[in-house]
Design goal:
By secondary structure, the protein is an alpha/beta fold. 46% of the residues lie in helices and 14% in strands. The protein has helices spanning 14-22, 47-58, 73-84, 89-92, 103-118, 138-145, 165-174, 197-210, 228-231, 233-240, 272-290, 296-306, 308-339, 347-350, 362-372, 392-404; strands at residues 29-30, 96-101, 128-133, 149-154, 156-157, 162-163, 180-184, 213-218, 245-250, 263-268, 355-357, 374-375, 381-383. The strands form 4 sheets. A 7-stranded mixed β-sheet has the order 2-10-9-8-7-3-4, with helices on both faces. Strands 1-12 form a two-stranded parallel ribbon. Strand 5 (156-157) and strand 6 form a beta hairpin. The chain is globular and about 65 Å long. It binds (2S)-2-hydroxybutanedioic acid. (2S)-2-hydroxybutanedioic acid (LMR) binds at residues 13, 33-34, 136, 138, 189.
Length: 405
């Protein structure tokens, strides 16, 4: 009965790791998936995470019962404070409902399912979500499968390798009232290009005046500037005006909890009463999907966020990761200058977060993979977090050859 099933293509991002793993070359480098590596090219478990795990292990009262459908209550509370701020009026007024989900993707999916079912049916446009062009490859898939109609708004300008702010404003101005707009909270994936705070304020005013619903994807809090608070400013700007929004948080990158699949979806509502009803419906979305979320990762996060000293330790380790990535940017930029590689490569040091959107085309990427065993996504995105001082010269040689060849 399954004989007709066609072979599906590999995922454009996670499939890069599959190809990398098959390559026997000793010089291969995986710059595909956005996952942090040390200078030695090794995955990193943060010290503060190891300490939290030790505490959990030594706690004789720890049990393995099911969590509630909405997850670990303390984790949810602390996650909302992390993104919206300790003194967020929306939290104080109990207008926020937060549910623990399976990292960023799971949070986006639960949010999308909720919107598809419950976002007010004044017009058909409430089932349309505008996503930036380009965006993380999984976004359109998550929203489409949940039943939303996906449209795009201009975001990146290949000519300047910066933000197409005019295009963004035009497209959001033309979007029908009531549509949902997906916004990357910081460290835009894949371009590494973020609006300035002034530009965010423009976007906020435009969206609120048009009744567009913001859905923030916050996968890199702490990775853009090295400061958790600074990176949450765009989201907090929207919360401060009293309006509604959704926010999906991931702890994959900023706490290095990739495989623990720990994240949260928050919905900021107009009143406490609405928030209670929204949460009751989120439970109906989650229960048939995966029943309730896993306990371990959320317990690690709660252990760290609740303890001042551990929280401080986390911010230091987070800043060290962000700084190493910035140092990789400088080193790659200098290596290309030293080789006299044609073109302007200043975007490598200007872009923000884990990725550089190099501007290399699909053929150039294929060349670099074939000849230099460098693995990256075909859109020319490089995960700077996968680079080290040892591999920068090899990558610079590959880029030079791809550009001049
Ligand atoms: C990425 O963009 O590389 C990460 O967000 C990992 C993923 O799941 O795609």
């Amino acid at each position: 009965v399954f004989g007709h099933v066609a072979q599906a293509p590999e995922d454009p991002i996670l499939g890069v790791t599959v190809a990398y793993n098959k390559d026997p070359s000793p010089v291969k480098v995986n710059l595909g998936v956005g996952a942090y590596r040390t200078e030695e090219g090794k995955p990193l478990v943060l010290n503060v995470v190891r300490r939290a795990e030790q505490l959990l292990l030594n706690d004789p009262n720890r049990i393995k019962e099911y969590l509630p459908i909405t997850g670990l209550a303390e984790f949810n509370k602390l996650s909302a404070k992390l993104i919206f701020g300790q003194d967020s009026p929306a939290i104080q007024e109990n207008r926020v409902t937060t549910v623990q989900c399976l990292s960023g993707t799971g949070s986006l999916r639960v949010g999308a399912e909720f919107l598809a079912k419950h976002y007010h049916k004044k017009s058909c446009f409430q089932h349309t979500i505008y996503i930036p062009l380009p965006t993380w490859g999984n976004h359109p898939k998550v929203f489409t499968i949940a039943g939303l109609t996906v449209k795009t708004y201009r975001y990146y300008d290949p000519a300047t390798r910066g933000l197409n702010f005019q295009g963004l404003l035009e497209d959001l101005s033309a979007a029908p009232s009531g549509a949902i707009v997906l916004l990357h909270a910081c460290a835009h994936n894949p371009t590494g290009v973020d609006p300035t705070l002034d530009q965010w304020e423009h976007i906020r005013q435009l969206m609120r005046s048009k009744g567009l619903l913001p859905f923030f994807d916050s996968a890199y809090q702490g990775f853009a500037s090295g400061s958790l608070d600074a990176d949450a400013q765009p989201v907090r700007l929207f919360v401060a005006d009293g309006g509604e929004l959704l926010a999906a948080q991931s702890y994959a990158k900023n706490m290095g909890l990739y495989g623990e699949r720990v994240g949260a979806l928050s919905i900021v509502c107009k009143t406490r009463d609405v928030a209670v009803r929204v949460e009751s419906q989120l439970k109906l979305v989650i229960r048939p999907m995966y029943s309730n979320p896993p306990i371990h990762g959320a317990s690690i996060v709660a252990t760290i966020l609740r303890d001042r000293e551990m929280y401080g330790g986390w911010t230091i380790e987070l800043k060290a990761m962000a700084d190493r990535i910035i140092s990789m940017r400088t080193q790659l930029h200098e290596a290309l200058l030293a080789r006299g590689t044609p073109g302007d490569w200043s975007h490598i040091i200007k872009q923000i977060g884990m990725f550089t959107f190099t501007g290399l085309n699909t053929d150039q990427v294929a060349f670099m993979t074939k000849e230099y065993h460098i693995y990256m996504t075909s859109d020319g995105r490089i995960s700077m977090a996968g680079l080290s001082s040892r591999t920068v010269p090899h990558l610079a040689d590959a880029i030079h050859a791809a550009v001049t060849g």
